[in-house]
Amino acid sequence: MRRFVWLIIINLWVLFHPTGGMTAENQQWKVIFSRANQAYKEAHFQQAAEGYRQLIRAGYENGVLFYNLGNAFFRLNQIGQAILNYERARFLIPRDGDLNFNLRHAHLLIEDIIPESQGFESVKLFWLDSMKLEELFWGFAVLNVFFWTILLLRLYLRADWNFYLLLVLLVFWFIAGLSFGIKWYQVETDDRAVILEQEVNVLAGPDTKDTLLFKLHAGTIVNHKRTEEGWHLVSLPDEKRGWVKAEAIERIRR
Q: 86-103: per-residue pLDDT in tens?
């Protein structure tokens, strides 16, 4: 929640100080980004990936960076890293057509066929997957302003038009509030992780001597449950679970 609040504050600062970010540091950002793009065009995909990662490590996180990094890893045949960064990009640019196409294509290359569970919100509130948390927040905030404005107006002017308008706003206000609340919960509790290594042994316990339960392959998305001394307990939608080495996976939500 604290991270989300800071993101809102930063967005407001940028909105009201549009020229405040034009610094030498931003110019350096553009140079590194341009060089990485050029490296990608020249098929130097490892060099391009390093450039994008350098920017992300420096705190310049946006959907385009994660998308480009995913493309570079895809060209390097690192499907796990490609899907990881495509999924991170979806948090920031969920409606990008190229991103969603590439992500679907990358999923077709995964060896493990594990259908994702469809929850109530995915079926009934289908628009949530295509919207950012910040968009839902501002939509709910704007509807709040309109709703309370019309409600106050009715104290001085009682008319049919503002009564029906208030009812309509009340419906949208409820839907927007519910959508924002569910999306916030989804983001805050997102425990998904991606298998990065080509093949990973899933064991019955956090020890290499434990029983081998099954294997997973690069790009497979699992749910991260907990960490214990260099091991992660992961689970799948079909309720299978087991332990993998820490370096074998990485959480999608940073």
A: 999 999 999 999 999 999
Same fold, 19-108 and 192-251: no
Residue 217 in tokens:
């392959």
Give just the sign of the alpha carbon dihedral 159, 160, 161, 164: positive
> What is the enclosing helix (H) or strand (E) of 199?
strand 199-203
Statement: 19-108 belongs to CATH 1.25.40.10: yes
pTM: 0.82
159: which 2 tokens? 């008319």
Cα(51)–Cα(33) distance, integer angstroms: 7
Give 68 or 14, the one with higher predicted confidence. 68
Boundaries of every domain in the chain: 19-108, 120-188, 192-251
Decide: 193 and 251 in contact? Cβ < 8 Å. yes
What are 54-73's pLDDT values in tens digits?
A: 999 998 889 999 999 999 99
Q: Does domain 192-251 have CATH number 2.40.420.20?
A: no
